[in-house]
Every structure is written in structure tokens, then in C-alpha cells.
Amino acid sequence: VLVVTEPSVCGKAARLPNPSMVRCRLVKARFGPDAPWREINGSVMASFPKDTPPFSYGDILRADGILSFPQGNQIPGAFNYGEYLARRGIRCLFRTTDAPDFTGHENSAYSLILSGRDLLLGRLLSRMDNGPDRALTAALLFGCLQGLDNESRSDFIRSGTVHILSVSGLHIGMFAGALFFLLGFLPFRAKLLTVPFLTLLYTLATGLQMPAFRAFLMLF
Q: Which of 46, 67, 92, 177 has the greatest number of C-beta atoms within 10 Å?
């Protein structure tokens, strides 16, 4: 039994495909059809079949699969996927063999913020029929990289502009600047209270990645 804990997953509203790898929290497991269930609380990186229906942050999934440990890189100095996952608090990989069953949703204050983001993103993308355009818009606005093909990523890397796909100081600064402009009718002190609060909601909606969090602290 898994709980989706990847904040960049847009869910059904954006009509984007699920990412190939999703961070989840493993809450319950059994190692055979007749084995007893065991309570577990650990993060895993899970992969799902392409035909899995879209899911969102907080969805509870029941899936059959294979649990494994990532192998270390044998080439000195090369990228080590196991160490990368360990720095994110992930020790195991979970590869599902069939599409999971949706058994519920774990509600929290954070899941409500992300649900509001998904609804807003769904409204913004509703008039876009082109899948790559929807994926690129979601990536630029909220850092949701699902649906962005490898060719588009390579184009951004070659042009030296791949940083705009990661929400950071550029996004936070533009968002806060737009708020200061739009709320120009408010008294100065009111703006100093309102703009940081709304910017915090935007930072949370983008997954609270470290570059965005640093930029928000500078704004605050």
C-alpha cells in the first residue's frame, strides 16, 4: 500500500501523463498472498505501467510489485543513483507489475493546496489541445515536469535555459513582483503582509524545492 508523496504530480485536472518514477510512502506491505500485512513507514521510488490512470498527491494505491535496492555505480566519479536517492531519504525502488488500485486519498493541509493548484492548472490548460504545450506550460508555471519529452528537455539543456524548468528565484521574484503591481491599491503595510503570504502558497504549490524556498526567504 503506497501513498503518493511527489508534489509535482498534477493529477487528473491537468490531463498530463503520470511521471515514469514517483516518490511514494510505503505504509503497509506483505510478501506473499497468504502472508500477514506489516505496517511500514518508508519512502520508495515507484514506477507504474503507462496505462495507470492519472493520480495526485495523497492518493492511496494498492499495487503488486518488486521491491529492490538501487545498485551503486561501479565507475568512479560517475553519477550514483543510489546515493542520489539516499540524499532524498529514499532507500528502495518499487516496480509494479500491474496497474495499481486506487483505495482512497490521504487528506492534509498540503494536499488541499496542491489540489487547488491542480484545479487552477486544469483551467489554464483546458483550452490547449497540444500535449507538449500543456506539459511545457505546467513545467514553466509550477515545475511539474511530467509529460515533458526527452527531446524538449535536451533542447533546453543545449540552449542553456533548462533552469527555467526548475522553480527558483526567477519564478518567485516574478510572482511577487506581479502581486506588488496588482495589489498597488492596498496600503503599503497591507501589501507587505499579503504578498509574502500569497507567495508562500505559490512556493508550496510548486513543491517547496530548495531554490524556491531560498528565494522566498530572501523575499520575506
A: 46
Give the integer Cα–Cα distance in Å for 154 and 162: 9
How many Cα atoms within 13 Å fall on the side-chain side of residue 192? Answer: 3
1, burial (CB in 10 Å: exposed 0-12, middle 13-18, buried 19+): buried
CA distance 119 to 219: 27
CA 91 to chain CA centroid, nearest Å: 19
The pLDDT value given to residue 178: 92
Give how far the C-alpha of residue 175 lies from the chain's centroid of Cα atoms, to the nearest Å: 19
DSSP label at residue 67: E
Count the neighbouring beta carbons within 10 Å of the beta carbon of residue 117.
Answer: 27
C-alpha cell at 29: 506491505
Q: Classify each residue of 160-175 as buried b or exposed e, where b means 16 or more C-beta atoms within 10 Å of its C-beta.
A: eeeeebbbbeebbeeb
User: pLDDT grade, residue 74 (50/70/90)?
Assistant: low
Q: What is the distance of C-alpha 74 from the center of its chain?
A: 30
CA distances from 195 to 165, 178, 210 (A): 23, 10, 20
Specify the pTM: 0.79
Phi/psi at 126 (5° precision): -65, -30
State the cell numbers at 216.
522566498
Please give the backbone phi and psi of residue 75, each rounded to the nearest 5 degrees, phi first.
-95, 120
